[in-house]
Inverse folding.
């Protein structure tokens, strides 16, 4: 027989809700760990007195009694687990696992029995239901009725508000009220918060970040009372999960964080964390409202009647003694600036991220605590706005993702080394596609150093590219010749000097101007040459044979209907994903069949293409389409060319010195002037091809 028995997905009822976790039976202890909160219940084997096996709503459950009066219930076992658990209990615990049936008759008349912290309602000596008395928040009495109210839990979809018991007047001893006796039995074990008696100590006007405000904190033996100007909160110590004492980055303040489950609430707002902010320089002298013997007996030297020191030390010391929880402080992590935290943003609010020995905690709005055991992986992502920062993403096993953004780039090395030392799974988006990296923690750990260096270099290179890109945006589309700033300035000056008279420039200047103006013309031709490429891509022949499909596409077309029928309501993108997975799992023989079909389709396509080309296909149709598309634009080009040619001939014939050279006139101005002055006779012509071919000199003589 094994030394231990372990079971997963075992449920424990906590204030009306089921929390799952893991249960382990060992020879020394029975340990249950809550998956949601991480809380651990440890029961020494020497304290076990009784064990019971029964059928419950979640399969089968175990009920354990201890010598201290506590009762523990765990549900979610299978029917087949009874035999091995019973044998293990007999061999190691010397306790017999007794089977007990629950009453399912549905009767509402029976006997109420108080068994430690439980109120059991039995019908014919079989329990119908049980009420944990620590879930009772209030108990009220009537003439013959007792009303029991319960603490509410926000995690439950349906909450039990109250239960009423009718107590017959004949029960009980003579002279005693049975209703009051029933109510006192409940109140003796109930978790009723009543601010009766004096507080152990009071801290005045403490600054609280969540809930925000200044509160007087009264420390009672069983609960914590926050008294503010607007709201009051009473927090039982049983709801406190953890305590944190965190130094601020400025080294002048301290955070004291109290984790709560279930949280305190105000209206629709829930506060899972109580965060207090202290100044390190603030001191206090504290006197407990108890005598020295009582302090020594109750706190066993953890507290003294008279204490003095820093305010944050006194508060944390008193809370630790009353709650009986350890205080978590930052470990050995130190950031780039020497602080034990990292400045970052979460949900558009700036705060501090503390890497702890067993998790991360973010302070303060909203507070987040993530344990290492619930983290699936972490990711270092490049910042969305600037390369001087990066984002730290944490993904939990439940599928939730937390992104801490705007972390300084200098913190990357320290944070990466910390995560690597804690053996957390790291996935970087830039390394997802590497072979063997996906889902392999060992591969991630082997390449951690390479990822570290590559990521830093990538951030530096991207920063340089962005800085250079701002200066070179305007010159991206220009040729190498026009990138010289000196030449560019000279050309621009000549272009905007077009109003100068011809007498101001010599023949040499004209020649140099002509040479300079040839370059922009080349640029214009170079830009226009790109357009026909797009036209060539758009031109398609519908009568040409279609390209053959690959083996995968042939298989997909034949399997698409089957995938839709097996997965009703599946989307188009999901079909592609599903088909890709099915194709990967397809056997080698099946793939060879589809490969052979693809080869046959390729041969058929080659044969059809040869016949198509031999029959003259692909030449006439494409030429006709190009002529139709280019027809309209060619007419305008011909008009401009003919007008420009006639204007040059006129210059040579007349020899007018006052005429401006065409280098200083735009193409639109020249075409408009030629159309107005000398193109009136040409407008009446029917064939523009003939107008272009006629000699310019003949028309000029006729017009003169």
């Amino acid at each position: 027989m094994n030394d231990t028995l372990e079971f997963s997905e075992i449920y424990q009822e906590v204030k009306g809700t089921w929390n799952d976790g893991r249960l382990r039976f060992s020879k020394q202890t029975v340990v249950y760990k809550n998956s949601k909160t991480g809380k651990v219940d440890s029961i020494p084997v020497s304290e076990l007195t009784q064990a019971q096996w029964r059928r419950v709503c979640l399969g089968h459950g175990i009920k354990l009694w201890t010598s201290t009066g506590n009762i523990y219930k765990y549900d979610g076992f299978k029917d087949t687990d009874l035999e091995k658990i019973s044998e293990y209990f007999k061999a190691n615990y010397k306790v017999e696992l007794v089977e007990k049936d629950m009453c399912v008759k549905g009767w509402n008349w029976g006997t109420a029995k108080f068994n430690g912290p439980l109120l059991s309602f039995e019908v014919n000596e079989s329990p119908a239901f049980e009420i944990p008395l620590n879930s009772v928040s209030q108990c009220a009495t009537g003439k013959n009725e007792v009303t029991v109210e319960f603490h509410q839990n926000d995690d439950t979809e349906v909450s039990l508000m109250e239960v009423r018991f009718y107590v017959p007047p004949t029960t009980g001893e003579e002279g005693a009220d049975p209703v009051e006796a029933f109510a006192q039995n409940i109140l003796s074990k109930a978790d009723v918060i009543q601010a009766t008696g004096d507080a152990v100590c009071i801290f005045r006007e403490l600054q609280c970040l969540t809930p925000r405000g200044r509160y007087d904190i009264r420390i009672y033996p069983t609960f914590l009372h926050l008294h503010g100007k607007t709201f009051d909160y009473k927090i039982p110590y049983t709801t406190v999960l953890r305590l944190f004492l965190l130094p601020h980055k400025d080294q002048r303040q301290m955070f004291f964080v109290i984790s709560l489950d279930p949280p305190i609430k105000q209206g629709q707002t829930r506060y899972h964390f109580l965060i207090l902010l202290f100044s390190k320089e603030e001191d206090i002298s504290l006197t407990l409202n108890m005598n020295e013997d009582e302090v020594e007996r109750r706190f066993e030297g953890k507290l003294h009647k008279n204490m003095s020191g820093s305010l944050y030390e006194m508060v944390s010391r008193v809370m630790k003694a009353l709650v009986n929880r350890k205080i978590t402080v930052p470990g050995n992590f130190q950031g780039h600036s020497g602080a034990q935290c990292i400045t970052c943003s979460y949900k558009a609010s700036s705060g501090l991220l503390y890497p702890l020995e067993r998790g991360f905690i973010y302070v303060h709005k909203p507070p987040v605590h993530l344990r290492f055991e619930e983290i699936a992986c972490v990711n270092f992502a490049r910042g969305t706005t600037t390369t001087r920062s990066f984002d730290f993403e944490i993904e939990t096993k439940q599928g939730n993702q937390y992104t801490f953004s705007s972390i300084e780039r200098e913190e990357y090395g320290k944070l990466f080394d910390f995560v690597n030392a804690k053996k957390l799974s790291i996935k970087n988006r830039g390394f997802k596609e590497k072979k063997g990296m996906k889902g392999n923690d060992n591969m991630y750990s082997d390449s951690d150093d390479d990822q570290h260096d590559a990521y830093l270099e990538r951030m530096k290179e991207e920063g340089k590219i962005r800085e250079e890109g701002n200066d070179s945006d305007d010159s991206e589309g220009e040729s190498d010749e026009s990138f010289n700033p000196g030449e560019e300035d000279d050309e621009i000056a000549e272009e905007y000097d077009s109003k100068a008279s011809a007498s101001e420039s010599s023949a040499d200047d004209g020649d140099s101007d002509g040479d300079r103006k040839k370059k922009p013309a080349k640029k214009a031709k170079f830009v226009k040459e790109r357009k026909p490429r797009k036209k060539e891509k758009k031109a398609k022949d519908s009568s040409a044979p279609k390209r053959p499909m690959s083996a995968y596409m042939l298989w997909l077309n034949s399997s698409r209907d089957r995938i839709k029928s097996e997965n009703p309501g599946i989307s188009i993108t999901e079909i592609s994903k599903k088909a890709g997975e099915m194709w990967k799992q397809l056997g080698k023989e099946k793939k060879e069949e589809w490969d052979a079909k693809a080869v046959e389709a390729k041969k058929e396509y080659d044969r059809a293409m040869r016949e198509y080309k031999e029959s003259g296909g692909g030449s006439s149709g494409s030429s006709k389409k190009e002529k139709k598309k280019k027809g309209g634009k060619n007419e305008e080009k011909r008009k401009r060319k003919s007008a420009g040619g006639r204007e040059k001939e006129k210059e040579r014939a007349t020899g007018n010195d006052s005429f401006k050279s065409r280098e200083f006139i735009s193409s639109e101005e020249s075409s408009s002037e030629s159309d107005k002055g000398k193109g009136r006779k040409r407008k009446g012509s029917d064939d523009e091809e003939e107008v272009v071919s006629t000699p310019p000199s003949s028309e000029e003589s006729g017009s003169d």
